[in-house]
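Project outcomes to date are best conveyed with an example. Our students and postdoctoral researchers have been running inverse folding experiments weekly, and each run begins with a structure described purely in tokens. The record below, which covers 363 residues, was selected by the lab manager from last quarter's runs and is presented without edits.
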């Protein structure tokens, strides 16, 4: 597709994890198997590609107000500037010019899987441009390979698979090429009630997941018994959350969120901090049953489960102690791609003919 009037777009949803976080990180998942339960939400990463008849590749990061140019014939070196894009270009051996636009509804370090979701949106758009057919497992695995192995970015498997498949999933991990995504068939009434009872609160602090994951992996490889026991508990709780959610036992589900959070904090002392602990404790005092920090830990978004009759009190208290509440909903679709003809802009005039007469609108 070389028509400069064509734009190819990829759109992938960000995710929230309910339980099992950290058990998808090697070597724990390689040795013992990991399990994650979570869902995607209506916040997205977007990629737009506009082919050009030149050798110039221009990448526009709309979130960071950054523009970087490359020559399509050159080897792209990783230097910390939009390396996700360069790795995706290398993955598809892109040797034609294009404009690439990237945008995400949440900041990096928010705990919603932003970098992996951007990668999924980027690779899906490039695959459509190149005419490469990838099923969801192949796309998620490619995103993992490019981000974790090619670029060496620390993290687990869940983000790439969540963004690709979308919806509520229970995902089991036994290392590379042995990931099984189990879509959960949850009644609409249960989804609506769960949404009504959840609060998503931004802590105002960006986390550096690599530091947390490095410490977690170190605890495992150094045979830290308490940390390893905590990882096994977090994995078991993911199975328990799945059962309670499928049964529609949402208050039990909310309490399990608390058990999971208490266990996860024992996996690494970098997962929480006094500010987050205060925010969480105040939410419990106001009536929340449980919750957890999303992502690896250290900052980002805090998810809290609150019975509907105290949700407003929890929300008020969290804002009083510095939390920023977010408007959101569940998204049941995964990655989407499409192409579109760019408008032939600027127009000089549009003429509209209707039975009452002819109308002209000048620009």
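After processing, the design step wrote out the following sequence:
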């Amino acid at each position: 597709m070389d028509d400069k009037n064509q734009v190819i777009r990829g759109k992938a949803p960000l995710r929230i994890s309910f339980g099992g976080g950290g058990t998808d990180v090697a070597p724990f998942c390689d040795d013992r198997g990991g399990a994650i339960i979570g869902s995607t939400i209506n916040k997205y990463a977007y990629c737009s590609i506009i082919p050009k008849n030149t050798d110039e590749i221009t990448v526009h990061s709309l979130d960071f107000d950054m523009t970087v140019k490359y020559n399509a014939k050159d080897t792209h070196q990783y230097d910390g500037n939009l390396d996700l894009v360069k790795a995706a270009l290398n993955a598809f051996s892109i040797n034609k010019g294009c404009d690439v636009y990237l945008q995400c509804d949440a900041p990096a370090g928010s705990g919603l899987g932003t970098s992996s979701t951007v990668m999924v949106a980027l690779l899906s758009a490039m695959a459509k441009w190149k005419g490469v057919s990838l099923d969801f497992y192949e796309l998620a695995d490619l995103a993992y390979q490019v981000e974790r192995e090619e670029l060496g970015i620390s993290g687990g498997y869940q983000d790439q698979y969540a963004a690709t498949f979308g919806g509520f999933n229970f995902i089991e991990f036994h290392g590379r090429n042995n990931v099984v995504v189990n879509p959960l068939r949850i009644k609409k009434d249960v989804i609506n009630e769960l949404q009504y009872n959840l609060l998503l609160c931004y802590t105002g602090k960006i986390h550096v997941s690599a530091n947390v994951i490095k410490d977690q992996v170190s605890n495992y490889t150094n045979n830290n018994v308490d940390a390893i026991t905590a990882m096994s508990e977090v994995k078991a709780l993911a199975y328990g959350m799945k059962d309670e959610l499928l049964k529609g036992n949402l208050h039990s589900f909310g309490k399990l969120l608390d058990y999971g959070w208490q266990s996860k904090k024992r996996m690494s002392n970098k997962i929480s901090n006094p500010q987050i602990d205060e925010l969480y404790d105040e939410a419990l005092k106001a009536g929340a049953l449980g919750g957890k920090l999303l992502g690896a830990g250290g900052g980002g978004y805090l998810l809290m489960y609150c019975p509907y009759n105290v949700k407003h009190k929890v929300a008020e208290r969290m804002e009083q102690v510095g939390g920023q509440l977010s408007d959101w909903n569940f998204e049941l679709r995964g990655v989407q791609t499409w192409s579109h003809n760019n408008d032939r802009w600027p127009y000089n005039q549009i003429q509209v003919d209707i039975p009452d007469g002819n109308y002209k609108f000048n620009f």
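The CA atoms of residues 202 and 301 lie 4 Å apart. The first helix runs from residue 28 to 32. The training component of this project remains on track.
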